[in-house]
Amino acid sequence: MLARGEFVGVILAGGRGSRMFPFSENFPKPLLPVCNKPLIAHQLEIMRALGIVEIFILIGYKGYQITTALGDGSAFGVRITYVEQTEVLGIAHAIGRMERYIDRPFLLFLGDIFLIPDDLQSMLVLYHAQGQGAILGVKEEADPAAIRKNFAVILDESGLVQQVIEKPRRPPNRLKGVGLYIFDPDVFDAIRRTPRSAMRDEYEITDTIQVMIDRGMPVRAAPCVKNDVNITSPVDLLECNLIEVKAFPRQRLIGNNTTIHSHAEIETCVIGANVQICHPIRLRNSVIFDNTLVDAKTGFDGFVLTPEAVVNCRYEQEGVGAVC
């Protein structure tokens, strides 16, 4: 049985997310909405369900918006401490900023990754039995392109992680890291031994993990998610919302104080609060942010609409890109 308080939570929410333009002009990525709830709120709820109530959030770009939205965490049943990120030098460097605050094992989320959990409790149990080192959240991934965007995990015959490869050109297997970790505080020693990478001139977390492995610290992998989406573009944001809509079709997908024309057709959409849809148009597979006026007389399919912009994600998927 895991003791309450055995683990704390950490969320890295300091990145700018320039590839999320035009949304990045007005939102830090962790506040982008997934089914009318900020992405980071989903992560807080996952941690709370695991019994993790003390959470540290690293903030940077537009961090004041995150502190305003989440407050002290009491609305989510947790206690939040904010730590400011002063430089953007990679994930390992960002984790290193937490050293003075953390004295026990911690569950780490990257603030721009949407996860659908399977059995996250298994990660905590596995670490509890191991007692040190690290646990990496992984997923069997059929799409090699998805592994190339993340990192590959290679196990030895005993099941320990032998090697991690950042963004492999040729994935060695189907085991993909999903941006979810448990670390012992000894990770901070490994971070100090982590050099900047040749690939991006940053302190890569995969290099830190390899330092831990090479120093003889146990690192294991835990298959613990059904799905994961790294939100790097508007297409990814739309995908997260549509995944949730299809998985939970009965949840509330229309925000408060929203007005929809009586003859408008809505199919597989998420519509925020204080939205006005003025004409009898057809909306399919789309997301509308809070406070958006939709005055168009033609419909939308595969779009994200905000008060400032209309993004055609179908063009985005084809590599063309279209912001109206």
Quick overview:
The chain is of the alpha/beta class. The chain has helices at residues 39-49, 63-70, 91-96, 121-130, 144-148, 187-192, 205-214, 234-247, 313-317; strands at 8-13, 54-59, 79-84, 106-110, 113-117, 134-140, 151-155, 161-166, 175-183, 219-223, 225-230, 259-260, 265-267, 270-271, 276-277, 282-284, 287-288, 293-294, 300-301, 303-305, 310-312. The longest helix is centred in the C-terminal third of the chain and has 14 residues, at 234-247.
Structure description:
This protein is an alpha/beta fold and 324 residues long. Helices cover 23% and strands 28% of the residues. It has nine helices and 21 strands. It has helices at residues 39-49, 63-70, 91-96, 121-130, 144-148, 187-192, 205-214, 234-247, 313-317; strands at 8-13, 54-59, 79-84, 106-110, 113-117, 134-140, 151-155, 161-166, 175-183, 219-223, 225-230, 259-260, 265-267, 270-271, 276-277, 282-284, 287-288, 293-294, 300-301, 303-305, 310-312. Helix 2 links the parallel strand 2 and strand 3 (79-84). The longest helix is centred in the C-terminal third of the chain and has 14 residues, at 234-247.
Could you name the key traits of this structure?
324 residues; alpha/beta; Spore Coat Polysaccharide Biosynthesis Protein SpsA, Chain A; 2 domains; nine-stranded mixed beta sheet; 9 helices; globular; disordered C terminus
